[in-house]
Write a structure and sequence with these properties.
Strand order of the largest sheet of chain A: 7-8-9-10-18-15-14-12
Number of helices of chain A: 18
Number of domains of chain A: 3
Pfam families (chains A, B): Alginate_lyase, Hepar_II_III_C
Largest interface: A-B, 61 and 61 residues
Helix content of chain A: 25-40%
CATH topology of the largest domain in chain A: Beta-galactosidase, Chain A, domain 5
Domain Heparinase II/III-like C-terminal (chains A, B): 405-652
CATH class of the largest domain in chain A: Mainly Beta
Protein name (chains A, B): Alginate lyase
CATH architecture of the largest domain in chain A: Distorted Sandwich
Radius of gyration of chain A: 28 Å
Largest sheet of chain A: 8 strands, antiparallel
Distance between the termini of chain A: 76 Å
Number of strands of chain A: 26
Oligomer: homodimer
Strand content of chain A: 15-25%
Subcellular location (chains A, B): Periplasm
Shape of chain A: elongated
Keywords (chains A, B): Lyase, Periplasm, Signal
Structural class of chain A: alpha+beta
Chain lengths: 756, 756
Amino acid sequence: MINSIKLIVLFVAITFVSCKQDIANDSKKIASEESNHPSLILTAQGVKDIRVQLGDIPIFDKTLEKVKAEIDAEISLGIETPIPLDYSGGFTHVRHKRNMVVLQKAGVLYQILDDKKYAKYVKEMLMQYEEMYKTLPLHPKTRSYARGKLFWQCLNDSNWLVYVSQAYDCVYNYLSEEERNKLETNLFRPFADHISIDSPQFYQRVHNHSTWGNAAVGMIGLVMNDQELIDRALYGIKGVDLDKKAKDDDGGFLNKDGKAGFLANIEEPFSPDGYYNEGPYYQRYAMYPFLIFAEGLHNVKPELKIFEYKEGVLLKSINALLNLSDADGEFFPLNDGQKGMSYYTSALVTAVDISYHFGTQDPGLLSIASLQDRVLLDDSGLAVALGIKNGKAAPFNKKSINLSDGPNGKQGGVAILRNEDIELVFKYAAQGSSHGHYDKLSYSLYEKGEEILQDYGLARFVNIEQKGGGNYLKENKTWAKQTIAHNTLTQNETSHFNGKYEIGSQHHSVLNYFSSENENVQVVSAKESNAYPGTEMLRTMAIIKDEDFEKPYMLDLMKVTSNKANKYDFPYYFLGQVLQTNFEYKTPKTLNTLGSKNGYQHLYVEATAKAFNENSKLSWLNEGKFYTLTSLTNSNDELLFTRIGANDPEFNLRREAAFMLRRKNTKNTLFISIIEAHGGYSPVTESAVNSNSSIKELKVVLDSDAYTAIEITNINGTMKLFITVNTNASKQQSHKLNINKKAYQWVGPYYYTNIN
Amino acid sequence: MINSIKLIVLFVAITFVSCKQDIANDSKKIASEESNHPSLILTAQGVKDIRVQLGDIPIFDKTLEKVKAEIDAEISLGIETPIPLDYSGGFTHVRHKRNMVVLQKAGVLYQILDDKKYAKYVKEMLMQYEEMYKTLPLHPKTRSYARGKLFWQCLNDSNWLVYVSQAYDCVYNYLSEEERNKLETNLFRPFADHISIDSPQFYQRVHNHSTWGNAAVGMIGLVMNDQELIDRALYGIKGVDLDKKAKDDDGGFLNKDGKAGFLANIEEPFSPDGYYNEGPYYQRYAMYPFLIFAEGLHNVKPELKIFEYKEGVLLKSINALLNLSDADGEFFPLNDGQKGMSYYTSALVTAVDISYHFGTQDPGLLSIASLQDRVLLDDSGLAVALGIKNGKAAPFNKKSINLSDGPNGKQGGVAILRNEDIELVFKYAAQGSSHGHYDKLSYSLYEKGEEILQDYGLARFVNIEQKGGGNYLKENKTWAKQTIAHNTLTQNETSHFNGKYEIGSQHHSVLNYFSSENENVQVVSAKESNAYPGTEMLRTMAIIKDEDFEKPYMLDLMKVTSNKANKYDFPYYFLGQVLQTNFEYKTPKTLNTLGSKNGYQHLYVEATAKAFNENSKLSWLNEGKFYTLTSLTNSNDELLFTRIGANDPEFNLRREAAFMLRRKNTKNTLFISIIEAHGGYSPVTESAVNSNSSIKELKVVLDSDAYTAIEITNINGTMKLFITVNTNASKQQSHKLNINKKAYQWVGPYYYTNIN
């Protein structure tokens, strides 16, 4: 069937071509407005430079060759612009999404290769769109809060215009004035109006959706040299005020603060460190319109100095985003994030190339570009290709980093601690807009890009139509966003802020300290006082490289202070096969859920135990590596093994495990844990190396308002002391403390030492 | 602690060395028996040849360099021969296992590098073993049916002697006659006697354990030139008859037929095609002693023509074994097999090199050797290294293959159908000795080395001490061996042969036909009449490449004929995430087990449904690829989603899913299914390609004793007909048949055609 459709389309295309062929384009007039094109992403000078270098810039040449092969194949199949019908993943959706990319690439090919067949193809497809669009009603699917025309949501329409603006810029001079008028009057202008003036609930916000809308309107405005559209893009729709309490499909406020436009969208979601408030998955998505529109503004309106805006936050944000990826380049799935998204995605090719070209020519970016194995076919891609060709690439070294959150960097943040192959991602940020999860002070842990303790990510199969049209599944709210789905503390089986966005979005955690000066002991500590009114959580996490341990180990001190007795649940979402515990557990005959709401309804209880020892230990095997959790427990603690998947009537959730510590009827308490990565197992050699924990004992030797101190005894007999400062954690502050009649003295927020 | 032990050991070793240094070895006498060494694996001529080529044979040089670095590091740590105490994975076990390898390698280094420090090291360690062994009691651990002395089981003792014989051969001439006498009298001879004469229940059998025993005794016999030991190795212990009904730990008969010795061990388990009756995982394990002893026999006793024995079955078996691996070189986990074991294991380096050198110098073997990236440091490794160096390597193309089972090739077999990236492994073999599973006519399906439908493999974590000492777990019997754990038919919730080894081992399935002449349509068909007395199962499976499908699809026709009404369960052990079904299912609030025994106690029921349609469809996503099962159902069929993991009190089982068809109160019936692999999904591009099935309808158009015919309608409207011949399936037989008033005529066991 696919073949026959293609044949029909080809036939239609050929017919179309033979009717309209070369009517008006051979007699060119170069009017003054024409001489400015291309100007948006490719520039006239850039095109000249590229043509000179072609054939001698390997990564650029290779990209060009692939794009040419791809677009030649598309051209040979003919043009198809079906009447819009489907949700994401459906035929018409996929086709129009494909067309926008094809148009953009064909435009670029026309410029670089100076071959009119590409311009002709772009023109013909644009004319088909013009013909359809001028009478096109709203998209028939009604699920979106802001319906598009080509797609079911304005968001996708905006995507389309961001790409197609670039195509239009590339063929601008190829088209006659009459043709341009036709396209602008019947397609581009009404298209830009629909996603902005007609859809303020989509456009007039600070939100990644709006960023796409702003960029779309702005980019077509730049090409059309339409100052009104450019202003609408930069500052929002004049005179429009939205209901500040209205919400979108995801539960986010539509426009709480009344801010709008591209500049506000830079201002609000990015912290001064370049952290994007929704997290890396959405930053990656939002990145493209931010950067491509910025590039256009830089080229057409250099006086705006867009790359210097807010102290250069756009370029900083690329560095932040690259640092928010694991060893394989995959983004940490903070908040709503689909696992597997990585810096190999095309938006990051844009980000890396633009960052290199318009930034400081960081040689580390060239090594990522080499891994990406392709570049933008524009001035920035040329710069990268030349950099690589000239041997300037150097490794992009990811180090421990603390990224503040909030427009002014005052709303908590995300810290990543790295040592050798171990990476800890600790989240003490603000809510993260409508894509935020209720997981204050949560963390995930990685070894060489593999998850040791996972963050679940989102409950969604993006663009897989069979799974709820590829959109958010209801389990995203009932499970993935809930606190119990994360490696943090749940109190009384309720989520942080009661799972209420209105409350959560008013608060953020507060950094106690971050310390990465000592390469061997990297620590972050933060406090959360609002998630459960009356309860304070102070969590201090460290990655410590110590000669008495094979690999860097993770230390976790969660100090809970409450004004009443509570039930605390403290889960560890480990992956892999249980190897051993030092406690006896019982497995039930039938599996029941752990609770009935707030995410608990999705967990089966696979085993239960009473903690006997002062230290409860669990070891497991995952992807050929051994891990051991050592956790401080008391004899009233319950230990649970749970598994995700209850109340999941459409198999939307992954059946993955957790180990959970439950402490009932407790006011103030400490959850102290160490996670060791150790040894390995190969099914080929069948040998197990260093499969046992190196920890003999873990205990608290002091806990006060001011300090918490723990002692770790290695199986080889060495003892370590770790003291964290709870209240006066400046780097300059000196401390004196007696523990077990021994005096300790140090400067700074923590102290780590051997004590025997 | 590790470091301090090493230091102590080093100190002991240094003391030892300084006392005994160079007493008798500088003044060499070359007696006539000495001139024959090395002769076992390395030969005197081979050593000369290697020394000439050294530095100019990259893969050999690289291997040598690594081995040298490894052994130099070991030597610097000193010698450690602890009193045996532990099970597999424990300290003393691991140490002695390591020592045997180190000895063998040090011996080889002495020969190739002509550096006495290696000979001295071997001598000193052997002397420590001699000192310990002469008074060593049985190993203190009592779990084995045949306890060793260095290890808890004779099997490991035999492993040790197979390696150490080679080391002894290498340093034979370095040692004084007095030293040799001491070693032979106090260590080697009693060691060989313990694993043979003292342990007939281990030695005097046809079993992979015995093969190790035979090889151990034979190899030390060859080095010592002791004809009595050589004969004991080849023919078994003279005059020993075992109880033919006794069983070993795994439930296998100790010696049902009274056969024993190395030759009987070649005779019995290998079919003429080289299939090893326990399956590839154990063949890989058994391979090393077979081949290394054969190499020794070839070198020392060429008159035996061991590589021509049973029409060259030893070399054929290597080809069979390589064909029993997936696209990544991992062996199919038939019977008890641990997943992940692959041709990268050192035993396969031996196999590939020996097969190349002593066989027909197949260039395909060189490409596998290149992947293995190392060679044996002996004559065969030299041949491989030279072959690679001289550019002779060619791809090892795995094609569809049918491997007969049984000593005479008359006990069923295993067929592998391959087309493009799809591999189907179909098992219609005999029981497979004590490691056999009760899974007649079962199959597993792979795409590019990834499982589509899995075989569970074994329930064991080999050498991981925390999991039952690394030994078989009780779930191996209660789950992994049971029929319901496999992709085949279970009748009335009982396993084939009632799960009784005595019965199962008397029977085997029978090939109906195997056809691989047509590259596009590869078919295997076999019948099982004994698994359930009164019930016959005839299963025909095909992999078909057809232009109307994106990838080759799998066709499965299971024809069941019974003399009474039964309950049939027919599972599909798919891996991954459920995407879509065309039936409505219900998910229970609590998870209960599917049954109470025969493996059913390990399955939770996650969802249930009644089949509505004639075709029940399930699609899923795994590792970025889409799959759809289309199965013929009737309205009485129950559909179940199950998950492994019930009654698993120590988390020994993996929590993996199955979809299951249940047909009650039925005598004769057909289970007809198609599995399509199609399209793909990338989390980086977030685009889903070809995510839907290409099948509109699947139906039976004829079913008789002689023929079964099905019709497949593609969504593009094309229709296919597949007819399988049930009873008269020779290649030459011509057939005529009317279906829906249309006449079909063909020659051979099946017919496949487009019918519109």
